[in-house]
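Hi all, long-time lurker, first post. I run a small reading group and we've been trying to get comfortable going from sequence to structure in the token notation. Rather than ask abstract questions, I figured I'd post a concrete chain and ask someone more experienced to write out its structure so we can walk through it together at our next meeting. Sequence below, copied exactly:
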Amino acid sequence: MFLSRRNGFGPLDKAIAVLVPLVLIAVGVVVYLATRPEDCAGGLEKHDGQCVGVTDAAFDANDDIKGLIQDVADENARVAKAWAAPKKGETRIPYGRVALMMPFTSDESSAMTAEMIRRALAGAHAAQLRANSGGGPHYQLLMAPDGKDLDKWRPVVDDLEDLVDDRQSPLVGVMGLPSSTPETRDAMRALSERRIATVGPVITSADMNAPYFFKTSPNNDLLADALGQYLNKNQGEGKGFLVFDSRPDDVYSRNLHRLLEKKFGKKYGLRQRSASFLGSTGPAAGIPQRFQSAAQKICVTDSDTVFFAGRDQDLPALVKRLSQEPSCDRSSPVRILKVGIGLEPTLTTPELTRMLRETKTTLVAAASVTPEWWRENPGNPESAAAPAGFKDFDTFFKKLDERHDFGAKPLDDGYAIMYHDAFTLLSNAFDRSYSEANEGTRELDGSTKTPDPARTPNKDDVYNTLIDASIVDTGDATRCIGCLRGAAGTYGFEKSADTDQWPVCKPIPVIEHPTATRREPQETYRSFEKTFKHPCP
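-- Answer (accepted) --
Happy to help. Here is the structure in token form:
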């Protein structure tokens, strides 16, 4: 039997009506808290699903660099403690901050591969450890992730600007900005507007320029000149072919395309013989790395000198496609000319090397570094000697390699070396600025007095020191005053419309792979050397 209610809901019903929504709300809160994405570690902030900003602490990133990030964070904490709470009997050690602005995560179309990110961070950390092993100021390496596609730079630049006026631990400068893209150009200009010295370790597009933007690698124009010097001694048959990346938003490839046509187009017939492809770096715009048409054209035209205007990540696919092309004449040698920071390990794998040998193809690369600096080559007694600053870098990098195992050929792509040099350029400038700011002042009685408290240089002092490191002509020779003694050479910078803060007297070796059993000694090209009466120091 069902009992009827005369007044609708009774007291119990009303209580349930109140409690049910409260329970549902509570359950919803618990579910949300359990399932929501975790906040970004290290004080970073989430933008479009990515953690970006500036931090001296550990945070989430690619799995293979988490150990390195923790090491950097630990060293940063040690540096801060040496200032805030020095050991008994020790004085405070002043310190500055160098920000590493680049992606710390990646996918298949990212500006940096996971391997590039790892080697770049390792090189910067090696430079930090080297700088902190001596006297003078020590350094924190701030990590500034700006998104896997470099497009989250605005909040990063805002955070960096907030650090400029910190007198205790000033921002020395920024390094990174690893790829010549429109986003990188916007970021470097924004940093320059804030008068923050910034160093691009691996930027090579010749039109990536801003007043406060320095580059430790030579640009595409200089790299192409090094190829020109090589071709003067190795002319070949003169039948050229140009393969270029057609992505309109790839600043690097477009700049290189124009320069190769300008420098070699007439002599090698590049306007009549060329083919495009879609590079793999960047947003989806079709099927990347389609080289069938290019391979067929290279073979049917009997081209022996192929100029590649694209990124290293795409070059292995061209080599493989050429090895499969049935119309190729395998009796005639072919060389593929490229520019870049080094020789990507993917270009020298046993499989690709076998294909190159079987098809009589040689990769010829004008680069910032060469394996001849660190690898014995019994077949080439004329191997280039390593730069004076390479040994100090190698000491610290090997210790990191033993700890983290960077795999085979960790130096070949040049990223570790050039990121080391970028950090060292900034830390050296701060060291020199600090020393000069705290030199003893001479009193009337001939004694000297050191400022108390110590004077801390600001970002303008660092910039002025950087721009003053230049090559001078003494009349009977050239000398490098205040130049960087880097792992990739000894070179300087000067305030000139011709140089635009590209490295002056930077060695630009040309690499051949596979290396010939006997190779005629090659003269190493030096950037802007022709502007001086005497050879670079």
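A couple of things your group might point at:
Confidence is low (pLDDT under 50) at residues 1-9, 14-18, 20-37.
The domain at 220-367 is CATH 3.40.50.2300 (Rossmann fold).
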